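As a warm-up, study this chain.
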Amino acid sequence: MQKTVIAAAALLTMTGCGAPSTPLGPADGSAKEESAQLSPEQDARVAGTTFNAVAEIQCSGLNGRGQTVCRAGVLRRLDGSADVIISGGDNQRTLKFDADGRATSSDASLAPPSSRRDQNGWITIDVGAERYSFPIEFLKGD
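Now compare it with the structure written out below.
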């Protein structure tokens, strides 16, 4: 059974996007090996993609525009971590999350991300002047 997230449930708010850069890594320069993506038997993939879920989401700031619609996809990994890839116009953003749903890095060349979860199950991530917000279900699945 294919898992999908409806647009209303996967609202993502984004402001002030900067130019993409290399994702953040450990301070000592060593690269942490990423966990493999869940197999299609463990978590269905959206047809024609490598994503475990996709959504049409609202965003602002991408390509210097006000609020608009962007696509987002999530890659869920064996260790419980996940990557969220957001696309809008000519730009793309990648946010990496640990198994607890905390943002650990971004491809934006800004300050390291900070994240918090509200009582309604929404995650809000701040990266410099950028802000992203979406439900934990998009990240973790049902």
